[in-house]
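HUMAN: Now follow C-alpha cell order:
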Amino acid sequence: MADSQHRNLLDELSLLGRLHLQVRRLIEAAELGGHAARGLGGGGDFIEHRAWRSGDEMHRVDWRASARGDQLLLREQRAERRLQLRLLIDSSASMVSGEPVSKWRYSCWLALALAYAAKRAGDSVELFAGGGDSNAKMRFRSLSELDLRAEELEQFAASGGTDLASATGVLCSGSSRGLLVVVSDLLQADDAFWQALASQRQRGWHIVVLRVLAGDELKFETQGAVRFEGLEGEASLVVDAGAMRSAYLDELQRFDGECAEGAASAGARLVLCDTSANPLGPLRQLLEEQLP
C-alpha cells in the first residue's frame, strides 16, 4: 500500500507539470499548512516574573500580575530564536539527469517545501541555486512569494561543472548562526566542499546535506549497451550495462562511504533521497525532528 501511495503521488506530481503546482500539491500532501510555528528554539515559554527596569519594553509588562502588587512586573520568557534557513540547490549539469523526475526538479520540490514550512513558522529563508555555471539568490519575504520563486526556478537552467564550496561561502556570509541545507547529488563533492561545510559549522551553522540521486543511479538495472554522456565536461562512454553492474555498485558503495566520512568530518547530517521514492519521506523526517 505504501509503495502504491508513493507512486501515485509521484505520478500526480508529474501530471501537474508546472513546478509551482507540484510544490503546492506536495505541501498539501505533507500537511505543512497544519504545522505550528516553532522557530529554531521553539521559544516563547514563560519562565517567571521580574521587576520592570528602565529601558524594558512596555508591551512585556504583565498588567494583571502588576495590579496585585506595588510594582510593574515583566514576563520573563525563554528567548524566541527564529531560524535562519539557507537552502543551497546544486545547479551543476549533473542535476538535470534522472527519469522520470530529474534530480534538479526533485531537489526543487524539497527545497521549496522546506522554505514554505520555515517561512510559515516565521523564520528567515533564503534559497540559492548555485555551484554550477549560473547562480540565483532568492529571499522569501512572505508565503505569497512561493509561486514566484517556483517560477524562477522553473526558468533556471542547471549547467556546467560543480563548485559547491564557493556557493556555500556566499550563502552563509553575513550571518553566524542558522540551518544550512545543501541539496545535491554530490557527484563532484571534494575535500574543499566538506572543508567549507566544516568552516560554517564552526561559525555556528547546523548543516544538513540532502544527497539526491536518481533511482537508476542507485539500482543500475539497465541491460545492454548504454552510452554515458559526460554532463560536466567528461567524454562519453559506451559500455555493456550488465557486465559492469557489479563494478558500478561497488564504486557507488565506495563513494557512499566517502560522502559519509566527509559529512561526519564537517559535522553535517547526511540524508539520502531517491528520486523514485516518495518525497514526503525526507521532507517529513526533517520537519518532524525539528532540526537542528
Q: What stands out?
A: The first helix runs from residue 2 to 16. Strands lie at 46-51, 73-77, 84-90, 124-130, 136-140, 178-184, 205-213, 225-228, 237-240, 269-274. The chain has a mean pLDDT of 82.
